[in-house]
Amino acid sequence: MAVLRGKRILFDIDGTLVDSTATVERSWGTWADEYDVDYEQVLKVCHGRRTEDTVAQFVAPRQRVAATARLLALQESADLEGVLALPGARRLLDALPRTHWAAVTSGPRSLMAARLAAARLPAPELLIGAEDVSTGKPDPESYLKAAAALGFEAQDCLVVEDAPAGVGAGRAAGAQVLAVTTTHSATELSDAHVVVADLSCVSVEATGDGVALLTT
Predict the structure, then answer these.
(1) pLDDT tens across 6-54, in order?
(2) Which residues are catalytic?
(3) Could you report how far apart the first and last alpha carbons of the chain are, in Å?
């Protein structure tokens, strides 16, 4: 059994707490058709990253603002059918005081809040989204900002992620990282300190001044 101890837990959302694969793929599929982009190549790199960072890989600089706005519009208007809590997510969040965790996502705050609600998961008191940072994951800015907002150093926090970009961001921030293989293989997530199948393999202990993640 592995144990990670810290002051607070910083959770990614898509692919970590919430399975929104169906709606995400529908949005990117429509966008790829409209911009004549290879959809399969988009899917290989879009997960866990800000929309604008992915768009920049596929369209010319002069198109990027409009292309990003179009994808965000598709995401915001997409139905939430099929958005579900991933295994273990509800149990883990219910076991944590709301002061002991935050969400750190590459998506817009409003969209991520809607997906959490659709999955019937509790809303975090602190949610750092794409609009809160100047550089997206794997840059550590989002995790550094979340830790600071909670009153801690990132190196004193635990990060829970599902994508290589997120694992890289957590490590670069100095945090201990637990990764779940819900969207990527264990090999792709090997930079994490601990890798598990999903959050059903994890339990949490909370004290007045800290938290521990225990894996089975």
Answers:
(1) 999 999 999 999 998 888 888 899 999 999 999 999 988 887 788 899 9
(2) 12, 14
(3) 5
